[in-house]
Every structure is written in structure tokens, then in C-alpha cells.
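Quick one:
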Amino acid sequence: MITLGVLNKDGKEVGNLEVDEALFGGTIRHALLKQAIVMYHANKRVGTAATKSRGMVEGSTRKLYKQKGTGNARAGASRTPVRKGGGHTFAKAARDFRQDMPKKQRQLAKNSAILAKLLSNSVIVLDQLKMDKPKTKEFATILKNLSITHSCIIAIPQYDVNILKSMRNIPKIDLVTISDLNAGDICNRRKMLFTKEAFTALMDSNKAS
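Output:
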């Protein structure tokens, strides 16, 4: 069992949660976790880089001048790659770098990522997170009180516009709902911040599955 302290906005402990490692797979599946991270990075690649081959460049395919008797070096068509304006020898073509994983594997990879954060004491649980209006300065103060000085991913039950507008100008801070959590985003940030409601809902969903 892992005991997590529940903190308030001032960084003071107001309770605790008992977390069973078995709910998050019991052990960290490193191979599966790596596969998921590679997939998420690959899926972010645009893959639209393209150049023209000699067949795509406009111009005649006629030989520029006869082979012999001119005193010049022999030459072929104007679209040859050795001439200015010609096509590329090995032209780049648009590629789809997307990879896929079965839903069950993505779920296991996500749980492994969360378990890794739990075992490294990188998970913070906040009793509640509500903003009456967008206030970046107030949100930054909350993060400071929770000793979040580097990158962090914040998980909440459902999107809150005021929270989103309060944190979007703070660098290296991401906001996601628990349904959108994935191994790639979790491993990309140093710490995780859950609201108590979000973490409880996550554990309940893992119990149900």
C-alpha cells in the first residue's frame, strides 16, 4: 500500500489516501511503457516534408545538345539532378508516421506510468481545485505552495474553463481530464497533480475494469 497525503492550496496536509499498487498493475511494465512513449512521439510527427523528383519538375525530356562535337561536357535533359532547377535524386515524399496500440495495452501503459510516478513520490493530491475566475497569479501561488517548480501535468475530473485560462500561460504545465490521460504525456512531465475527486474516480474506474 502507498499512502498519499492530501494537501490544500496552502500546501498543508489535510488527509491521506491509501493506494493499492495492484490497481495500477502492481509492477511497472517498462517495455510496454517504452512502446507507448514511442507511439505518442511518432503520432505527433507531421510527415509532410516533400521535394520534387526529376519526374515532377517542369521541363522537356529532350537531350540539351548532341553528344559529341560541341566541345562541351556531355549533357542529358534539363531536369537532371545535377543541373540547377532539376529534380532531387532521392526526393522526399510525405509519410505517415502514425503507430497504434490496442486499447488494453494503452491502458496498461498509462497505469505503469502513474505507478512509476507514485513510487518516485512525484504524485500530489489536492483536496480541491476551483477558480472563481481566471487568475494566473493565484494559480502560480498554488503551484509554489505545492512545491511544483518544474514541469507538471494536472489531472481533473472534467475541464474547467477558469482553471484552463489560469494555467495556460505558465510554462511546462499541462491540464488534462482523467479520461484523456496517456503514458506519453505523463512521462513528459516531472510531477503529477490530481484533485482528490479525480484520483478517486481514477481508482474507481481501475477497480471496475
